Amino acid sequence: MLYSIQHQTRFRYDSPVSESIMELHMQPRTEGRQRCLNFFVKVNPKARVLQYRDHLGNHVHHFSVAAKHTQLLITTEATVEVTPADALPGFLPLSAWDELDCILEREDHWEFLMPSDYAQPSPLLQELALQLDLRRREDPLSLLIEINRGLYERFDYATRHTHVHSPIDHALSGRRGVCQDFAHIFIALLRQLRIPARYVSGYLYHNRQNPDRSADGSSHAWVEAMLPGLGWIGFDPTNNLLAGERHIRTAIGRDYSDVPPTQGIFRGGASSELDVLVRVKPTGAPEAEDPARELLFNSNPLVFGERITPLEDQHHQQQQQQQ
Questions:
Q1: DSSP state at residue 114
Q2: What is the CA radius of gyration of the chain?
Q3: Distance of alpha carbon 178 from alpha carbon 157, whole angstroms
Q4: Any idea what DSSP says for residue 258?
Q5: Numbered ranges of CATH 2.60.40.2250 in the chain
Q6: Is the preceding peptide bond at 45 cis, omega within 30 degrees of 0?
């Protein structure tokens, strides 16, 4: 399947700011079943955009805007090809746990086994682990499919219940959250089982044939786990799915803190408002009338902006919660 992806991000400030410095994790990866055929970034006010690859192979773009401005608009576009994965076996042999331990002895997966900023153990996580009967039983693949379904059934999908920097206890206490929360909980559980688990930032193509509960018009997040004989396999607990042809990967990390779509700082005493619009569609599909099409460019109040009050002269830019 060929996809066209548009991702628009706007930061608005209630007074002029300067020295905006921004880092992006938005370019889809090329590996395995996925190829990024083209990608570009446009910034307004104009800025020279540079890029590098981090130690996990993620494309990282960065730029700075020195002139004073009251708005920063970032537009990215990509064309990505994703081919279907081979069907997974119904289960793995009982020896798979021993094979997994051998992989951990031979290969370096320590950063995907240790607790990280947003995937920390806690009493509430242990309570959930008991409810899920979290232990090395059956085979790794069957157990992960069961956990994936268990999180989907036990947690409600609810935007605005958590925010971008919420620890997993916020979602655990209310049993609700968004894809970012579900991914962090899943990762924290798997690492207790000594299964390497990593956070995947990307997009999910929504259509009428697949009634996903995650939000259209935003980026998405899920989890990849290392399984013997299979490699890295994706699990989407938000929608009770195995990652497939509709999942488009942009970046991988220990958790969200490694790969936020946007991350930066600015200098000034302004409050800021963040607005995001994402469109994912098969290439060649007819352009549907979309009332939100010009949402990021008009001057009317925006329906999904969230205001913050800065605390000091140099401030972190708001980050996008993945839904």
A1: S
A2: 20
A3: 6
A4: G
A5: 2-82+260-316
A6: yes
What are the tens digits of pLDDT across the range 84-143?
A: 988 999 999 989 999 999 999 999 999 999 999 999 999 999 999 999 999 999 999 999
Domain covering 2-82+260-316 assigned CATH 2.40.340.10 in the classification: no
Give dist(CA 110, CA 144) in Å, integer. Answer: 20
Q: Where are the alpha helices (DSSP H) in 193-268?
A: none
Written as six digits, the tokens of 127 are: 């309570």
Which is it for strands 2-24 and 272-282: parallel, antiparallel or unpaired?
antiparallel
In a 3-state reduction of DSSP, which class is residue 262? strand
Each residue of 42-72: pLDDT tens digit? 999 999 999 999 999 999 999 999 999 999 9
Span(s) in the chain for CATH 3.10.620.30: 96-258
pTM above 0.70, yes or no: yes
Query: In CATH, what class is 96-258?
Result: alpha beta
How far apart (Å, rounded) are the C-alpha atoms in residues 161 and 175? 10
Amino acid at 68: K
Which class for 196: exposed (0-12), middle (13-18), buried (19 or more C-beta within 10 A)? buried
Label residue 157 left, alpha or beta by phi (over 0 means left) and psi (-120 to 50 means alpha): beta
Angstrom CA distances, 128 to 166, 181, 262, stand at: 18, 14, 31
